[in-house]
Amino acid sequence: MRSSNPVFSRRGFSRDNGYAGFNTAPQAGGAAVGAQGTNPYATNPYAQQDLQQGAPPQAPVTTGRMTMDDVVMRTGTTLGILVVTAALAWALLPVDDANIGRSYGIGIGAAVIGMVLALVQSFKRKASPALILSYAAFEGVFLGVVSSVVDNRIASGAAMQAVIGTLAVFTAVLVAYRAGWIRVNRRFYGFVMAAALGFVLLMMVNMLFAVFGGGDGLGFRSGGLGIMFGIIGVLLGACFLALDFKQVEDGIAYGAPKEEAWLAAFGLTLTLVWIYMEFLRLIAILNSND
Question: Which is nearest to 236 in space by CA: 94, 76, 33, 97?
Fold first, then answer.
């Protein structure tokens, strides 16, 4: 099973000389788009057995295999750096009338650097903790500035509401996944991929119309349509989380190398940032319509 996450989407599980690892394949762009042939299960023996027999295989007896503790620790470290740099950006980059241009420019620059680092890591065969933590630091600066703008100039308390919403979605999906209420199978994967591709393409078209035509483009990020697409974005983020949980579960069950926990942390961070940004946009739209 490959995740919707741009990190996980280019990796499937396979055995190589007695231990488990990840295959790599070209990655399509976008926050929710990845491709590896036409069958998402073709390179993942565990996913195939899971579908056919309903039970995971026994992980090979090796040392240095990824565990849930590894994933939790590295995800906590990555998110911790992101939160710290976001808090510093909020405090040190004011968004009053005299400084908003400079602060927003720094935030956009940090976002571009973070995106480049994310892409570099996504195409690397192995996890690079330095790249992942650097991405988290620059992404935190961007989120800190954007959150400050929305919170101080559009909707007071928006950042905390978005954080609470993100945590609520994460908890709800985790509980539903562990309880078996969400079944991550081929049909689920195909549906999420199709929905995500359509969502990303529509947002790109809307952005192009906004850049060249001015205003809100096609209106997908304002008014009633904006609210609808904001809700769809949050729901897609929840689906990404379910796919990411499945990817982590597969990796642990199939004996992925310990260093792959950094990729799990990276992928989960990307998904949580997606959900947070969708909540922040949704809150901003709802308040701007008041």
Answer: 33
Q: Which helix (H) or strand (E) covers residue 38, if one does?
A: none
To the nearest 10°, the Cα dihedral for 62, 68, 74, 80?
-170
Instruction: State the residue for tokens 């906590």.
Output: 76
Q: Are 279 and 165 in contact (CB under 8 A)?
A: yes
3 state SS for 220-246:
CCCHHHHHHHHHHHHHHHHHHHHHHHH
pLDDT of residue 124: 87
Give the separation between CA 5 and CA 269, rounded to whole angstroms.
10
Confirm whether pTM is higher than 0.90: no
Position 166 confidence tier, pLDDT thresholds 50, 70, 90: very high
What amino acid is encoded at 41 in this protein? Y
List pLDDT tens digits, range 204-218: 887 887 777 666 667
For the chain, the maximum distance between any two Cα atoms, rounded to a whole number of angstroms, is 63
Helix, strand or coil, per DSSP, at residue 20: strand
pLDDT at 18 over 80: no
Contact (CB, 8 A) for 222 and 288: yes
CA distances (Å), 177 to each of 41, 47, 72, 192, 279, in order?
20, 16, 17, 16, 22
Element (H, E) at 21: strand 19-24
